[in-house]
Amino acid sequence: MRRIIFFTIGLSIVILAKTVQVNITADKFWASQNQNITKFNGHVKMTKGDDFLFCNNLTINTMKEKDTNKTIPKEYISEGNVSYSFSNPKTTFKGRGDKVIYYPLEGKYIVLGNGYLEDTASGRILKGDKIYLDNTNGDAHIEGKKNKPVQFTFTIEEKTKDTNATH
Q: Is the pTM value of this prediction over 0.85?
């Protein structure tokens, strides 16, 4: 039990490397230092500042950082009724899906099953069975299903010709 507490504290410190507090609540918790894995099950709620993640199950796969030998998160896998909101300096993304995988070292997100992703700054909305988002460069890739195509919604400003203007 003592190892689990220290492992959790250690994981929290690594997650907080930029001195941002991360809070995770769930019905159940399990961790294995030998397997580099932490699992939260049932009514999972993770918050970090204004960012949040809600899901049924959250698995955090960790690894040892090469330079410091500290345990750091390499992959977050959230499953079951996933909803989230996260921000970067340019925008806030809100979305949902059946499963969301986040690779923090690469800044990449994958939304699987009934994916929905909204960029609140631009008003763009992406819908598809698989949504790939690279948060470092803003690239996105969306895949649909045969009976459920990709949807992309955006707003444009059209310039209209002024018929009263003189030339």
A: no
